[in-house]
What we know:
This protein is mainly β and 156 residues long. It contains 2 helices and 10 strands.
Amino acid sequence: MAVTAQEIRQTYPLPVYNYRVEIGPDAVAFSEVSGLSIGHEVSTYKESSVGGAPGPRVIHMPSQPTSPKITLKKGIVRGQSVATLYAWMASIALNTVEKKDVFVRLCDETGAPVISWRVANAFPTKLDAPSFDAKSNDVAIESMELQADRVTISEA
């Protein structure tokens, strides 16, 4: 049975490699993004036995939303690393950190966004330099961790 390009576009899963990241108004190329999760803490309540049932009844209920921790990784490129990530991280020392919305957009084969994850009010908490090894020829990768208020998902 033949499958049309439109059927493939509508029913096949999207590959994870075709995405873009926007920090505020700036698009920044990252090789890896992780931690885009939505979760809640769980509260446990114990009720005394009801109607002659033995022992206490345990109830689990969702409570406060958890704060997401996002990790962004990218290769170091001359002139870009200090200008973007380090400048944002250095602003914390002056207590002038600017919280920014970060968008991760999963794109289709034409580059058009299909699904967007919005990381609200993010700010950097950690910037890691690459691991240096004289026996390796791997790309120098830096990583930044962000703390945020919440993650929301929308169709683009």
